[in-house]
Specification:
Helix content: 10-25%
Order of helices and strands: EEHEHHHEEEHEEEEEEEHEE
Strand content: 25-35%
Largest sheet: 6 strands, mixed
Distance between the termini: 46 Å
CATH class of the largest domain: Alpha Beta
CATH superfamily of the largest domain: ABC-type transport auxiliary lipoprotein component
Length: 275
């Protein structure tokens, strides 16, 4: 049975957690005191933070490649002492070090410290006594990290830039009205799926659906057409097909392209690439 010994110790710096850079560099290291329990625990933390946050996360191997092969000897010498560990972070250009300690005293003791490199001090720490040394599952590991790090680190966003062929068209994203065109690029929670609708009296409405990746930027071009007329040149299938190929293979800033639906075909999904 798992018993939490120390849930969280927050220092004054966490009172300003909203000021931390959500894309700062963080290194994750392991210090073991005669224990082989919980193998690869640091790598699991790196994988979790890389997926759940926008932090630049380096694991032990990546840190060693920058610091040098003697990294493990220095970690042992530091023995978890914050000022010593912070010097490792400073040498590799990190803002913070997450130091994971594994030791055994009957049960396996797991300690995790978040060390601020500029101040060379512990920002937060937790410890857990784990009977039998069973490694924490993914949910438990995520619970540790959400206690250790500012909540803002787990809020991720992307940008959707909607460009309409017509001014004064109403834009609705995810069921919420966002104003009339032209509108500034929208910063939205990601990863997420958003339905987009652009409409103006006298024109056929434009509708599409996009998948917004975390830290990504999508550009949606909404070409509005008047009903009843012949399709514009860009609405024909033989124009749309090669256009999709060009965008999908393009490099650079344009990430997503969406086009106006035709009266017969129904909504057309945009295609593109994330660069």
């Amino acid at each position: 049975m798992t018993r939490v010994l120390v849930i969280l110790c927050l220092l004054a710096s966490l009172a300003h957690a909203d000021e931390t850079d959500p894309k700062r560099k963080v290194i994750v290291l392991e210090y073991r005191s005669g224990s082989s329990a919980m193998p690869h625990i640091a790598d699991r933390v790196v994988a979790l933070l890389s997926k759940q946050t926008s932090l630049q996360v380096l694991g032990p191997d990546q840190t060693r490649a920058v610091y040098g092969e003697h990294l493990d000897l220095v970690i042992v010498k530091c023995a978890g002492e914050a000022e010593c560990v912070a010097r490792i972070g400073q040498k590799v250009g990190a803002a913070e070090v997450i130091m994971i300690g594994v030791s055994e005293l009957g049960d396996v003791i797991l300690t995790i410290q978040r060390i601020d490199v500029p101040t060379r001090s512990v920002s937060s720490r937790l410890a857990d006594s784990i009977a039998g040394g069973t490694p924490p599952n993914d949910a438990k590991l995520q619970a540790y990290m959400t206690k250790l790090l500012p909540a803002s680190d787990f809020l991720r966003y992307g940008i959707i830039d909607i460009i309409s062929s017509e001014a004064d068209a109403l834009v609705t994203v995810g069921g919420q009205r966002r104003g009339t065109t032209p509108i500034p690029a929208l910063k939205l929670k990601a990863p997420a799926s958003y339905e987009i609708r652009v409409e103006k009296r006298g024109f056929q409405p434009f509708t599409t659906s996009v998948q917004l990746p975390a830290d990504g930027e999508l550009r949606v071009r909404a070409n509005l057409a008047r009903p009843g007329g012949a399709p514009a040149w860009w609405q024909h299938w033989y124009v749309l097909a090669p256009a999709a190929v060009v965008v999908a293979g393009a490099a650079g800033g344009t990430i997503y392209f969406a086009t106006q639906q035709t009266p017969a075909a129904g909504p057309l999904k945009g295609v593109g690439v994330i660069q």
